[in-house]
């Protein structure tokens, strides 16, 4: 009986924590939102899937997503990009702000501040060489 309880507790503990830690090396790229039906309002999304800006899949996205997106730089600079469909001059198409990452050993959290649309805390749910999946925590 003790063995069965130990196995159940071990499996519960094992399933509660990720078995493969999220490596952040792939984070430092330009990402675009992979949501073709999204009109461009991201502040109310709880889960956000990003793909690489220059990927084959990004070429099929609507212009406002394809030329928008975000970039994480290693020096803590966060760049928010947007598509500039404007016939009156050349207004800016990006804004720099700040980001930081915290790691409590179980999950990695990104905090973004000073941006137009992305301020908040996000859990890195998935990150590989082609996909970034964030979950908004606040």
Summarize the structure.
This protein has 138 residues and is mainly β. It has helices spanning 2-16, 63-66; strands at residues 30-33, 47-52, 69-72, 77-81, 94-103, 108-113, 120-127, 131-136. The protein is 14% helix and 36% strand.
Can you put this structure into words, describing what you see?
This protein is mainly β. Helices cover 14% and strands 36% of the residues. It has 2 helices and 8 strands, in the order αββαββββββ. The chain has helices at residues 2-16, 63-66, and strands at 30-33, 47-52, 69-72, 77-81, 94-103, 108-113, 120-127, 131-136. Strands 1-2-8-7-6-5-4-3 form an 8-stranded antiparallel beta barrel. The chain is globular.
Task: Please render the helix and strand layout as text.
Blueprint (H helix, E strand, L loop, with lengths): L1 H15 L13 E4 L13 E6 L10 H4 L2 E4 L4 E5 L12 E10 L4 E6 L6 E8 L3 E6 L2
Antiparallel strand pairs: 1-2, 1-3, 2-8, 3-4, 4-5, 5-6, 6-7, 7-8
List keywords for this structure.
8-stranded antiparallel beta barrel, 8 strands, mainly beta, 2 helices, 138 residues, globular
Read across the widest sheet, the strand sequence of neighbours is 1-2-8-7-6-5-4-3
Radius of gyration: 18 Å
Uncertain segments of ≥5 residues (pLDDT<50)?
A: 13-19
Order of helices and strands: HEEHEEEEEE
Proportion in helices:
10-25%
From the N-terminal CA to the C-terminal CA, the straight-line distance is 43 Å
- Describe the oligomeric state of these chains in a short phrase: single chain
Strand % is 35-45%
């Amino acid at each position: 009986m003790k063995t069965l309880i130990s196995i159940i507790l071990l499996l519960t503990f094992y399933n509660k924590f990720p078995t493969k830690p999220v490596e952040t090396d792939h984070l430092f790229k330009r990402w675009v939102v992979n949501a073709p039906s999204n009109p461009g309002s991201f502040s109310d999304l709880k889960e956000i899937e990003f793909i690489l800006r220059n990927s084959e899949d990004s070429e099929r996205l609507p212009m406002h997503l394809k030329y928008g997106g975000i970039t994480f730089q290693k020096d803590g600079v966060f760049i928010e990009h947007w598509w500039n469909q404007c016939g009156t001059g050349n207004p800016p198409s990006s804004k720099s702000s700040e980001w930081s990452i915290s790691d409590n050993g179980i999950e990695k959290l990104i905090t973004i501040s000073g941006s137009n649309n992305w301020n908040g805390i996000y859990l890195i749910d998935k990150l590989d060489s082609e996909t970034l999946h964030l979950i908004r925590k606040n």
